[in-house]
Batch of 2 targets.
Target 1
Amino acid sequence: MTSLLVFLAILAAVALVVAFLIRIPSVATTLARMRRLDRRWIFLAVWVLVMVPLLFPLKLPVAPTARAMQYYEQIDRLKAGDIVLLSADFDPAAGPELVPMLKTSIMQLCRKKVRIVGDCLWPGGPPLLEQAFSEVARDTFHYRYGEDYVNLGFKEGREAVMLAMGNSIPGTFPSDFRGTPVSKLPLMGKVTNLRSVKLLVNVSAGYPGTKEWVQQTQSRFNLKIISGCTAVSAPEYYAYLQSGQLLGLLGGMAGAAEYEKMAGVTGAATKGMDAQSSVHLLVMLCILLGNLAHWAARRLGER
Amino acid sequence: MQRQIPLILTGVIGFVMLLYFFVPHPFISGPGHFFEDAVIIVVAFAIVLGAANLLTFNGEIIARRGKDWPYKVVLLVSMFAMIAIGLVEGERYLEPETVFSWMYNTFYASMQATMFALLAFFIASAAFRAFRIRNLEAGLLAVAALFVMLGRVPIGNVISAHWPNGIQLPQISDWIMENPQNSAKRAILMGAALGVMSTGLRIIMGIEGSFARSGGNS
Amino acid sequence: MHPANPLTFEGLGVWIASLLTLFIFSFLYKDNPFYKLAEHLFVGISAGYYVMQEWWAVIYPQCVKPVAHGEHLLMIIPGVLGLFLFSRFIPKAGWLSRWSLAIIIGAYAGIKTTGFAQGDLVAQFQASILPLYVPGHLGASINNVLFLAGLLSTLVFFFFSTEHKGAIKGTAQLGVWFLMVSFGAAYGFTVMARVSLLIGRFQYLLDPWLGVTRF
Amino acid sequence: MRPRASRPSPLRSGTTGLPHPVPRLRATSFAVLGFLALVAGVARAQTPPATARATTTSSLPALSAAAADVQNDNGQALHVQWTAPAGVEQVIVERGSTPAGPFTVLDTVSAEGGSFDDNDVPRGKPVFYRLTGLGAHGPTPPAVIGPVVAVAQWFNTGRTNVAFFSVIFFAFVLFFLWSSRGGRKLFVRRIAGIDAIEEAVGRATEMGRPVLFVPGVQDIDDIQTMAALVILESVARTAAQYETKMIVPTNYPVPFTLAQEMVKNGFLEAGRPESYDPNSVRYITSEQFAYVAAINGIILRDRPAANLYLGAFFAESLILAETGFSTGAIQVAGTANVHQLPFMVVACDYTLIGEELYAASAYLSREPRLLSTLKGSDYMKVVIILLLLIGSVIETSFVLKNPPTQSLGQVSSPFKSWFRTE
């Protein structure tokens, strides 16, 4: 409790000092002149505030949120031999946020000895999915391709593909990522359509992604869905969490770091969170300083 | 007549796909399955058309030595190189050891990620130069932004570690996300859904068109 | 410190990717030929990449190969419609592409309408029906009342058929406040997203390229 | 490629440069509502599903089982249920066309699941199932059940609620379309954003600087681009009256031609066709970052006094708003892409939020299509608000009568359950 009072006391003190300083004309003019600061100084500040924590990590503790725990529990509830659909709907532009989630999800699925059918609805996705599969499933957990996991690769068509998979997954993906016909893969023998899948783990960066999976398949095929998404699309998916259409959510790199902590791994996301903290503080400082400069200028009567 | 038939076709296909949702009977779900599988292929051709557009657009600039035409040459050469390598390496073109995958990792993945990373710099400079708290609304926005930004990163967790349970920074930012943010976002979702449904209805009934006719007046 | 070895196939790729990354970052200082080169190279490579993905992942396995083997002959129709799209490059034959547009626009009109109607309208409406007082769960009751107030006032804000006067004006004003809080939350999350992309690029420069630390 | 704030879509860089030459169909409008009502009527008359009881032929305790047609499907699925006596771990499920006929094994499933879904049954033909339990003390005698027929239903009763909402909304939209075409005056309130736009153009005239109008970064297939181009026409009319120069950058061929049309009409209606400058509307490029860099160049070189960003925007709205802010221009923005609104609200003097963009274009153009959508949505929102209020009252009284024992949200009133989506 005391740390809260101390925090509030500091805030009040800073506010008072600023309110006092802004009345001194010389301080006000320097503040106002700050508005013409070349933005490349800010770029430099961002560059430094990201590079330093990456080189000298502070290892600040990450606090898992309820929705991230639900994501973890949904996978934890699976039994050995269950079949899961892992849809990696993203491309390298969202790599830093979503690749850590993808790897940690595959790792947790492998620990539960769950069989994974992977696909991508973004053209930029298949190599990332293949790299994650080989690094985690094949090399660390010795999953056999074709029996324990399958990479069906990319399919164009967005919502149309989701509907088609609802009726028949082998029909929608006649061949896998390497062009081998699906009939030659034993695991695909057990997969008819979305009803024969216990859970959809959707790593999503935007359109097509979690929103379209929820709209097109969640109710119709009674599909359980959990989503690991970019921080930009996370706010919109809280509506689906509250309505029960989505059963778990990882939001952005922070979500990935929480998930890594729960899975007992320190991956790229956890290592990036210190830099995330420092730049967030910088952005907050920029907002406050920018407005301070604006108030100072207005006090001096400038537009 | 060249315009009427495609318009009727659009309406019929749209109507079948609309009914496909309500009618499980094979009389409707049969054509529904076919249109699902067919539209996947036609959209794939549309993407290839996009590359053809790039070819004609940039080819024309190169032909008349327009502005930055040497860069356009680099653009077309790299496009054809990627297509050639992809065709030569056949169906296993995305295997980790192929030249195509090497090009993917070296050029596509790196540059696309960097293009997006630029935005981090612009967000910081915009926060300083263009984030004006000029009224109550912008003030509310700023307060919510500060709480969420602080609550979602470890530093916020460290600052409020010993605060009374329930009002720690991560919990405040979670509450903002689950309640006020959610109710406003849900109203927006419903409004957007109505917008999409009415556009769909107009397309199915063939009254969407006149606006889109190039050169056509409203 | 074990930087990537530019003489190996894989190491050379890391070196080129890292130099291109610095080329694009140079845009921050000022627009320059290096950035322009990287940008055009990127547009070309990604266009070529997408064409190959569409060919090997969709057109070949689902249209060309089965038809060549005599199965799924129905798939000739979308294949022909797809080729019609290119009729725009032939003078006077441009109207053929309208047939291909018909299936794209028509199919997605039906799919999106029903998807939004069920997922974003009915399901969201159903989940918004909340008990305003639950005995023994005071916190949840307050949250439910607040939730319904926010939802109704925002819906009133997006109401354009009456002037915003009196009670409606007050409700709409409350709706704007809820909207501003949701925009603030979205702003915070977007900042987080952009920053993590930059962190990802620096991790690439520090680990596979310079090998300073392990990520 | 097109970095998007929240919706990077793979279809980019000119790929959606498809013109939309689908002209207006005067003659027919389908009887959508009539057909749906007909379908619902047919659903009532369907034959009730045939449920066959098990006929066991042996003394040892065999499985008591039943099979029934799966509802709301295309008639190729049957649901087999059984209660296995103790000690039975697995059940072999076989199917045949006659009670004694050749049976083919479908699958061997764990007994405690209690059921099996057979998803590719020949439609409309009677079939028989033979269930043999496997357990610690050997197989149980087979239990043959049937005949049972898989039937296709004409209406998925689980989706009646979606049909209910859709039919009401479509009725509203069609009614308002019919009445707006009939010339009836439909009231739409004047959006404060329209005054802000006119004030910005007035400000540019005072300072003798041009007005920049960016109609979004999407092609014509995004409804926001269309709404923006309608507003462009009225902005051009105001600019023509004030003799103010306009700059309209575009990034796709079709919006480019339509923008020229709109600006020309604006100057025509203001009675100043001669002062229309043809190259005020420019086609730049469809590659997103190059397009943004070019517009930044215009803002910094021509220093417009009023920047209007209306239409579909993605990651670039932040960059445009910041550059415009640094030149001190008055900025008005508007988009329905919700993830971009935070940046516009903080950086611009006024922002049209979400559907306000459509309301502004409907108000200015009085166009029947835009008006019917707007009024239809308004009345549908009234229905939703009323249903929410009624629903909350019912739910509260229901929860008060039977308070939830374990966690919240498990129990819900019949009213709320009717809206459950399947």
Target 2
Amino acid sequence: MNGNILEIRKVTKQFGGLVAVDDVAFAVRRGEIFALIGPNGAGKTTLFNCITGIYPPTMGSIYFDGRDISGSRPHQVAQMGIARTFQNIRLFPFMTALDNVKVGQHVRMKAKLWDAMLKTPRERKEEVRVRDRAYELLRYVGIERFADHYARNLPYGQQRRLEVARALATDPKLLLLDEPAAGFTPQEKVQLMKLVEKIVADGVTVFLIEHDMRVVMSISKRICVLDHGEEIALGPPDVVRSNQRVIEAYLGSQGGH
Amino acid sequence: GGTTGGGSSKGTIVIASDYPASGGEASTGIPEQQAVAFAVSQHQTIKGFTIQYKPFDDAINGVHDPQKGAQNATTMAGDSSIVAMVGPNNSNVAKAMIPILAAVPLAMVSPANTNECLTKSFSYCNPAPSELRKGSTNNYFRIAGTDDQQGPAMAVYAHDTLKFTKAAIFSDNETFGKGVADNFQKKWTSLGGTVVVRNDYDAKNTSDFKTYINSAKSGGAQFVYIGATTGNKPCIFKAQMKGILDVPLTGPDGFALDPQCIKDAGDNATNIYGTTAGSDPVAGNDPNAKSTIDAYKKVYSKPTDIATYTFQSYDCAILLIDAIGRAIDANQNGDITTPVFSYYQSDPTNTATGGWKYLSSQGVTSSS
Amino acid sequence: MDGSPAGTTQDSALAEKAEEVEDPAAIAARDQAWTEGLMAVRAGMVGNRWVRLLRWLVLGVVIVVLLLMARNIATHSQPLAYFLQTIVYGLGSGSLYALIALGYTMVYGIIELINFAHADVVTFGGFISLSVVTAFGFKEGVVNGPLILLALVPITAGTMLVCGLLNITIERVAYRPLRNAPRVSPLITAAGMSFVLEGLMFLWKGPVNNHYPDLIPTGQLTLIGTTVRIKDAVVVVLALLLVLALDTFVTKSKLGKAMRATAQDRDAASLMGIDINRTIAATFFIGAVLAGFAGTMYGLYFGNIVFDLGFATGLVAFTAAVLGGIGNIRGAALGGLCIGMFEAFWNSYFVSAWTQVMIFVILTLVLLFRPAGLLGMRVPDRT
Amino acid sequence: MSSATVARPRPGPRRGRIRIGRFTLNLRDRDTVIYLALAIGALAFPTVADFVTGGAGGSIVLLAADAGVYVLLALGLNVVVGFAGLLDLGYAAFFAIGAYTYALMASGALFHTPLHHAIHIPFWLLLVVGVMIAATAGALLGAPTLRLRGDYLAIVTLGFGEIVPRVFRNAGDWTGGINGLSALDNPVLPYWVDGPWAGVGEQFGIVKDLIFSVANPTAWYVLMLILVGISVVMLNNLRKSRLGRAWMAIREDETAAQAMGINTVSTKLLAFAMGAATSGFAGCFYGAKLSLVSPENFQFQVSITILVMIVLGGMGSMPGVIVGSLTVYLILFKILPDAPNQVHSLLATTGFTAIDQPTGDWPGLGEFVSRLKFLLFGLILVTTMLLRPGGLIPSRAEIDVERAAKETSALGLEGAQG
Amino acid sequence: MALLELKGIDAFYARIQALHGVSLTVDRGEIVALIGSNGAGKTTTLRTISGLMHPAAGTITFDGRDISSTPPHRVVQLGICQAPEGRRLFQRLTVQDNLEMGAYSRRDRGGIRDSLEKVFTLFPRVKERRHQLAGTLSGGEQQMVAISRALMANPRALMLDEPSLGLAPLIVDTIFGIINEINSSGVPILLVEQNAVKALDVAHRAYVLETGTIVQSGPGKELAQSEEVQKAYLGI
Ligand SMILES: Nc1ncnc2c1ncn2[C@@H]1O[C@H](COP(=O)(O)OP(=O)(O)OP(=O)(O)O)[C@@H](O)[C@H]1O
Ligand SMILES: Nc1ncnc2c1ncn2[C@@H]1O[C@H](COP(=O)(O)OP(=O)(O)OP(=O)(O)O)[C@@H](O)[C@H]1O
Ligand SMILES: [Mg+2]
Ligand SMILES: [Mg+2]
């Protein structure tokens, strides 16, 4: 095993005639913040979906921690240690923030059907542990005071945080964030960056998709750029920023930021 | 049960009934209920006691429900003014009620249960009648012909009188219908007849009988036998035969003698043969029956007020009222079951159908 | 799942993977299948391997049944005539199912409600036209011949109108107030409305079968031993015409488009300037107009109507709508025809006590392979 | 940040709480109060019934025991529909399976089948076996539905609801066909279980087994109470456990649930299995008490009735479901069937017998009321739903939806974003 | 008199009050920006104007008519059109059908065809995908369709709710270009944006909304200089 936590090996994803991801190959290193950028419809979310098992890749394979995970089902992928957030927030709207996070810990719990029905001491102990951990995570992302609120009633920004907390609850080794800063004010973006850095510092690798160049350029170690499903650049922010193809296809005037 | 005293009369005696009186099955249940009410209205007192009538409904959401039947039975058992009941209409409700009322005991007389295993012990009966009563004495009587009689009777008639050899047999796939059809088929084949097609249709889900008619036609059937009750559309079958297959329709009294059948069959209402467990009260010309029927029609004038088992239900009520009289005479302290049974042995004169008379001579109604 | 420790399932899944060496082309082919409707529901289904296994199993069963049917068909004394006649009858009842299924599909399509009361509106329609027909004294033998059609057309039209108004009223009273309530609440009022309608018809026409006079002129055409009566032809042709008209209307007309938009996102639709209340009411109206037609046809074709007819018929018609792909007009028509045809064939060649069982078995199988019905399509769940 | 707009005070921590050993009762919690009231009501019921009817409470107590069957069914369906959000329109199928399991294994029925050997397994054992079989059936029947979402699932379950009773009806060799199976065994409680104090020396001065029979309504009632009690406790535990949260997560957003590592397939199967298991309880009790099962009594109407019970009570909320099932049961099995007789006697006592007499088209008021039953039931359903769209005792989530819906607009536009 | 005017609007979600006496105006030919942090009530304001929610207190007038309790489809027919938050496309209709739905209340066939052409030139990507089902588009593509759909109505007043959300930087530039272009043809625009830099840059006037209350207003450029705004919304 090498320093790569995730390896995308020549992955292609087609929808009918449309090639959404075209023969993409790169690796995410353990402990880094890796960003995936590219114009709208470039195939970024699709690649996330391939990684998390929502779609099987048409061709190619994906290795996580040295194991081939292509074709695994989403819950298996989550069990192995990949968590994600969604481009359009997908919380459990009629569950409290606390319960949302508790659901996140599902894979790391051991209680069996009988334990639950009979409320065995084992189960009770585990529930206490899960509850404490959930509060801890809510505190971690800064929304502990919303613990009792239904997810749907949280303001948008807090929903994003909650989604992160829920993802972290699965104890991931790799966290995929799909446009985490969308709809944030600059202030909130700064807070988000801090949060992401904290997460990485705690030993989780972060792989994110983001359109805000200020966020991307300032926190990511390396960036991969997709255009029309193809990889057009890969490297540290400085290199990518000055790449002519990237500027043409994606950055435009904002490239300077 | 027992009789209670008090008031101006010596006391009040209540006769109960248990029929499906709501939803689709009300087409038979309500007239049955009305017939009992009518019988009671004709005999408001007996030997100084006032007779009252209390109907129970065993249908839930329009379908007869044995659990409801059992509940009704428990209520009857707990109500000391109720001495006997008429009904039920459905054999599986009877199965739920018999064990409860046998323990009391409280007499039940059904105009409509035809399942032979309720009273007769055949090897295939599960449970045997005695098991059903769980050791108590018999409390259950009926005046309806059992399924093992009507079917064979028609088979013999079709074979010997009509000289047919090829039959198409159908049923509504319900307790009564399938029972008679099975028994018909057994007898028919034993007589050497050919069965060109045998199918049991789902009455609720079937409106289109043309495929069945077609299968009968292409097999060259000389007549059709359907085991069903009127509500389960045998006569609509006949209506749809129009222009496709012009052969007689035969069946049990469950529909064949029901005036509703003539309506259902529309302009194809000819050539229908039926067996009956007794003499047909409506078509027959027993003057006694006719006057009763006319009196009933005066009160209940709608055509839908007469259906299958309506006058059989009336008979059951009359039977019970007479038995109550005997019980009072014999001072049997409210034991109606014994008089009811003894009544079968004697010679009745005042019922609308006389149906039970025919049956009692066959000795099939009680297995005591 | 609670029973299996986290590790084992995943390990075995990986082990399986390792054994399977599939060439890219095969993977691509499999993928193609996914995109065609299956992929959409990948989330929430059993692993590939099981699906493939099941597929073979089911295919086997289907082949056996087909062979049996073929044998029965072939060994019949008049194979061809009997077969064709069965088709004719299957088409007849199938087109009635189709008509009723349309009402379910339209309402479901727009407000995702299984409108349990729909088939009762059909029955209601039948009773209305029956009453008018009786009031005018039309009976078999009294009036016949083509002239009767002159009377039947306005009667049917009137029935359709009355049913439409009735359905709009029902929608207004029982469904609209619950438009934002939990999904099942309107389902219960729909069941309640069904009881109410059946209760009313029970009071009105009693519990018995009501004979419906056989008014369509007699006359028939016999070819290769197969008889097609005017009745059969009228029902099938009119039903198909209506389906076509409706389909064109929904796909082409502005109101039709408004319906589709309203179905998908009510808020957004109203932001386009669509009056959603009117659109939903219109949907109910159209569904009920078809119901009125179906009710009259039902009476004329089968010769009777009973107050609780809707209960069982509705179940089958709704099944037909689902089979075809609920929300899809052509799907409902196809589903109705399929079920009518299947019933006819099963009754003709097999034991009819199992007909209903087989219908639902087939429905389940079809949904197993096309989770959105025969013609239904589902948009993948985008993340 | 807009925390101020949504922040709401958390309920006071300690007030209104009673501690009993390890358990704390929170009297400010609506559900606790309802459970408490139900429990007290249930315990007092036989005595009260006896008192009110002047010693003839037996039939009411039996009625209550029968009602328990539906309570169990509703609780089970609530797991599938209310917790996991899987609309099941064929729940009666599992009820049928439970009842037939009892019927075949606790009667002479199997003697008449190709097996030729009757099996008489005691009721108490069959409770467990029946639950297992029903749960297995639930999982098996659930399997093909798992790929389906929303109402496609509903229609397949509806299909099962139609298939299962028909199979029982058509497989006459094994199931008694249309005639069903009857004369099933009654449960027997050995004397050493109910203790010498129960049936001391009636006949020979020796203790004897307690036999459940019609003559002994309280026994049935207590048995049902215990079954309901066990189910309520277990299902409530489940609801608040890891599994319960997984069900709710699936209900809310299946894709997101998967992404959280929930195996939706097995979790949904478990929901079906748990729902079916509860109906297995109900089926055993039903068979044992009625001593009869027949295919006609597990039709679509039963499934719908149970669904009506849970929706009317408040889907997802267990006390709501209990109250709902009791209410609907009371209406369907007591109030509506009794109405005509009530009218008869009311008219008789008030002297208005004239309008109770049938004349011409008028069947008499009592009879008329009897014909109104269908209509009345329908009207009750519609009006209750209109007045309380979330049910009589809605779950917390539904209270919220309802409020939002009411206040968002009178137009019927959606409040929440799609 | 202003074309669109809100006076003292209160709005509620269940128990939660989302707007507290919000007053604002949009004049003919103006671009007005509405900025504020998450959950401030921006979307709620737009929903109230569109008639998707009705204010508990206060009045909304458009062109002199009170539209406080007008249903949304009537509001659209009056000429106020909105590209809602969260795109809200008709997922199972094709892109082209979605665009046609945008022109639902228009009757001029020729005009509709012109608008379609115009939208296609603005967003080539949309043209490329016009036969695809809207539900399968990528997030950004959906956003483009949502904006295009609003343009199809040929509105008298346009409201855009976070039009740049989820768009690539290049497209964001395009969007703001388009906003200017539409405005220069005389259509007033009420713009809700997180990207306050750009929003304040194009806006003639702007309002700052905080927890349901307007806390600041003034010409866009001026607000961009304001210290609080800079700190909270410009990330400076
Ligand atoms: N299920 C699907 N069926 C058909 N086409 C699809 C499907 N999912 C995605 N696509 C197409 O694949 C392409 C890539 O989509 P994807 O969501 O990956 O883009 P993206 O890079 O995330 O873009 P954005 O930044 O706008 O979110 C898009 O053109 C989209 O239309
Ligand atoms: N459907 C709802 N139910 C309950 N509360 C809601 C709902 N929608 C919004 N809210 C609340 O109303 C307030 C205002 O929300 P609104 O959506 O108008 O904010 P916004 O300014 O548009 O924020 P954003 O930038 O996140 O879109 C927030 O506190 C939010 O939590
Ligand atoms: Mg994306
Ligand atoms: Mg907003």
